[in-house]
Amino acid sequence: MCASCGFPAAPGHWTEAGSAGPGDRLRTRFRRAQVLKSVLRRYGLTAHDGAQVPGIQIGTLAGAETIVRDLEELWCAAETMLGAPVDPLDPRFLEESEAAA
Amino acid sequence: MSAEGRVRLTVLGGYLGSGKTTWLRHQLHAGAYRDALILVNEAAETPVDDALLTEAAGLEVLAGGCACCAGRDALVALLRRLADTRSRVRSDDARLDHILLETSGLADPGAIVAAIRADPVLVHHMVVTEIVVAVDALHGAAQLAGEALGRRQVETADRLVVTKVDAAAPDDVARLVATLARLNPGAAVSGAAKGDAHPLPDHAEAEPIALPALSADDAPIFTTRLTLDERIDWPAFTVWLSALLHARGDDVVRVKGVVRTPAGRLLLQSVRRVVQAPERLPDTVERGTDDTIVVIGRGYRGEDLARSLARFAGAG
């Protein structure tokens, strides 16, 4: 348990397995935040991970915000905020993001 | 296979009376799973199977409740106890390294994997290395046609063993094998008669059994191979896969593959929504199948997977 934030040391989520060391872990977090930000923007959501606090911050443009521990929780939070899950295979998402690229 | 200090868990499933115990009994007799502790789960209150498995190195019985639903807490408690006992033994001494769990005929192996993954203690101690499912050559076709559970068991398997091959007509067996190959194209299929390996008839020409849809979303399962090129890095891949499993976990039955990451080669596998803690594989051999992910599922278009992953990776 982290004394400052109360986050219990979770068993490593599978998504965190790909980093070789502390520096790489930080790089992975920044890159992950970058990907999330750009995907969630299309749904009117924001994501932020400044690596200052544990977890990823996810919010709506209206200001509702929450901190989640890992990607699994993040998609649950996104579903709560949107009322529907973010579906990577949604044809509208695919077409819009391909048009934007 | 290295499990990074964790206990390897083999799950043996299959419908009621499909020949799980007979197969296991013969495997034990032939010397396989000799190192393993055998856990037998029976839905009925009075256990019978343990009397048949006398050749096992160690045997524990979980009776009175199927381990994937009613008896789940009992299974988790038993596995925790085993993990606890094992932790008291020094790692260089002989200790429990392999457990084979024979499920009850009513169990969904996927639910058992999920229960182990969801337990904060067991996730550090156990890794499911293989799901073996026995399919009855005589009654398998009827079970697949009429029982959603029978299909779920087949879909989650890594290895399918068609039992009682000697007792069924070769044409029927060929059709069953063709059906299995359609339901779960990723699994290896072998035959057995009274537990002994038995050749399967050629199923290349055989017509798969037409399975009636049991519910609206019961389209046939298919396999998609995804190649991860250098543009797709680990963070983008995990964001994509976690989103995919969250949104489509009921459709994406299985994901398997080896991914190269800065931390080494990782063996990744999931059953429905549950992803196992990736296992680090030795770096010594360069394999052609690295960075290829096999996705087994239904209810989407295969080409959309690659499109969608490319969008996630190109994002930002």
TrEMBL record, chain A:
Instruction: Please list where the region (Disordered) is annotated.
Output: 1-23
Q: Which organism is it from?
A: Prosthecomicrobium pneumaticum
Domain of life, per lineage: Bacteria
- The protein's name is Uncharacterized protein
TrEMBL record, chain B:
Q: Where is the signal peptide?
A: none
Q: SMART domains, per this entry?
A: CobW_C
Q: Which InterPro entries match?
A: CobW-likC_sf (IPR036627), CobW-like_C (IPR011629), CobW/HypB/UreG_nucleotide-bd (IPR003495), P-loop_NTPase (IPR027417), Zinc-reg_GTPase_activator (IPR051316)
Q: What chemistry does it catalyse, as a reaction equation?
A: GTP + H2O = GDP + phosphate + H(+)
Gene3D superfamilies named in the record: CobW-like, C-terminal domain, P-loop containing nucleotide triphosphate hydrolases
* Keywords (A to Z) from UniProt: Chaperone, Hydrolase, Nucleotide-binding
Give GO cellular component annotations, separated by semicolons.
Answer: cytoplasm
Q: Which SUPFAM superfamilies match?
A: Hypothetical protein YjiA, C-terminal domain (SSF90002), P-loop containing nucleoside triphosphate hydrolases (SSF52540)
Q: Is this entry keyworded Nucleotide-binding? A: yes
Molecular function as annotated in GO? hydrolase activity; nucleotide binding
Boundaries of each CobW C-terminal domain copy?
Answer: 221-313
Answer yes or no on keyword Transcription.
no
Q: Which domain of life is it from?
A: Bacteria
Q: What does this protein do?
A: Zinc chaperone that directly transfers zinc cofactor to target proteins, thereby activating them. Zinc is transferred from the CXCC motif in the GTPase domain to the zinc binding site in target proteins in a process requiring GTP hydrolysis.
Give the family this protein belongs to, as stated in its UniProt record: Belongs to the SIMIBI class G3E GTPase family. ZNG1 subfamily.
PANTHER family hit by this protein: COBW DOMAIN-CONTAINING PROTEIN, COBW-RELATED
> Mind telling me what this protein is named?
G3E family GTPase
Origin organism is Prosthecomicrobium pneumaticum
